[in-house]
């Protein structure tokens, strides 16, 4: 399996305060990581590092063998799809046009840019994978939060990234919306077996059954890291969230509550 991402001994200091310390992580093709931790544990900061958005204060981050700081960040970002629920789109674009902006990496379509027939076909395939075919021509302001979330995943996948980063993609979704998103992620993993994903969440109920690995962050440090089965235990999660927890897994999905 190819290494998509390697972070070694990463430290991030902000305002003189360490936010991440001694964080190491290797993600390979076909692996689907969950990044878990309490509020302020450093999850979003770590995801920004992995997405080549920010530099570490110390340590190294390599995306597909290219070292952050040695190559142009824009070059690295081409390999990484980043799904941010705070996408700053205000225009009433149609779903399909939003998906196509993934190719120009712009919020709105560029004035003289036109997709090729092959690119349009890819957009339609991704729209289908994410269960949005009926909404292909719907306009962004009329989409629900869940529909927007799935549109942004299709958008992030347009340039065929090797790594997809998802920052709390189920935030604000109702139960059907969350379940649709999870089904779409599992479908995506089946259709693109070489893709690697890293998903940040506080809630184990939001993890797709196809999650293969997990990393638990506590106060900026790695508490546990490895296969999902080995890391997602009641004992480790209780330490991670400072709360006695019981954990249940059924049909591949997790649920957790206070002990
Ligand atoms: N630019 C910054 N300057 C100073 N402190 C920062 C900065 N960015 C983040 N922090 C602090 O770093 C810590 C980790 O933040 P981060 O957003 O990575 O946590 P998180 O685990 O994603 O939290 P949440 O679950 O609340 O989203 C927090 O205490 C936050 O206040």
Structural commentary:
With 259 residues, the protein is of the alpha/beta class. It folds into two domains: 3-79 and 161-258, 3-Layer(aba) Sandwich (Rossmann fold); 91-160, no CATH class. 30% of the residues lie in helices and 30% in strands. The chain has eight helices and twelve strands. A six-stranded mixed sheet has the order 6-7-8-3-9-10, sandwiched between helices. The chain has a four-stranded antiparallel sheet with strand order 2-1-4-5, with helices on one face. β7 (163-167), α6 (175-191) and β8 (196-201) form a beta-alpha-beta unit. It is globular and about 50 Å long. The mean pLDDT is 91. Adenosine-5'-triphosphate binds next to α1.
Task: Provide a quick synopsis of the model.
GO terms for molecular function: ATP binding. With 259 residues, this protein is of the alpha/beta class.
CATH architecture of the largest domain: 3-Layer(aba) Sandwich
What is the overall number of helices? 8
Write out the distinct hetero groups bound to the structure: adenosine-5'-triphosphate
Q: Secondary-structure element order, as H and E?
A: EEEHEEHEHHHEHEEEHHEE
Distance between the ends: 38 Å
Structural class: alpha/beta
CATH class value of the largest domain: Alpha Beta
The named CATH superfamily of the largest domain: P-loop containing nucleotide triphosphate hydrolases
pLDDT < 50 stretches: none
What's the number of domains? Answer: 2
Helix content: 25-40%
Biggest β-sheet strands, sense, barrel: 6 strands, mixed
Domain ABC transporter: 5-244
Protein name: ATP-binding cassette domain-containing protein
Pfam families: ABC_tran
Keywords: ATP-binding, Nucleotide-binding
């Amino acid at each position: 399996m190819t290494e998509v991402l390697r972070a070694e001994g990463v430290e991030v200091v902000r305002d003189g305060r360490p936010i991440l310390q001694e964080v190491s992580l290797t993600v390979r093709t076909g692996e689907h990581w969950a990044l878990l931790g309490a509020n302020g544990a450093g999850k979003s900061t770590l995801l920004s590092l992995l997405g080549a958005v920010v530099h570490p204060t110390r340590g190294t981050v390599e995306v597909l063998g290219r070292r952050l700081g040695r190559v142009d960040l824009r070059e690295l970002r081409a390999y990484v799809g980043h799904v941010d629920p705070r996408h700053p789109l205000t225009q009433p674009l149609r779903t399909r046009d939003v998906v196509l902006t993934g190719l120009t990496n712009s919020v709105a379509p560029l004035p003289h840019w036109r997709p090729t027939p092959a690119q349009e076909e890819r957009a339609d395939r991704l729209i289908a994978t994410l269960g949005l075919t009926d909404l292909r021509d719907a306009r962004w302001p009329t989409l629900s939060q869940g529909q927007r979330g799935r549109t942004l995943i299709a958008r992030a996948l347009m340039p065929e990234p090797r790594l997809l980063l998802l920052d709390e993609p189920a935030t604000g979704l109702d139960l059907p919306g969350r379940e649709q998103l999870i089904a779409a992620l599992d479908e995506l993993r089946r259709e693109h077996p070489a893709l690697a994903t890293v998903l940040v969440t506080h809630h184990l109920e939001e993890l797709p059954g196809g999650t293969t690995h997990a990393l638990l962050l506590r106060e900026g440090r790695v508490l546990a890291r490895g296969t999902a089965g080995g890391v997602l235990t009641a004992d480790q999660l209780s330490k991670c969230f400072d709360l006695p927890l019981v954990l249940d897994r059924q049909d591949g999905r997790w649920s957790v509550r206070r002990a």
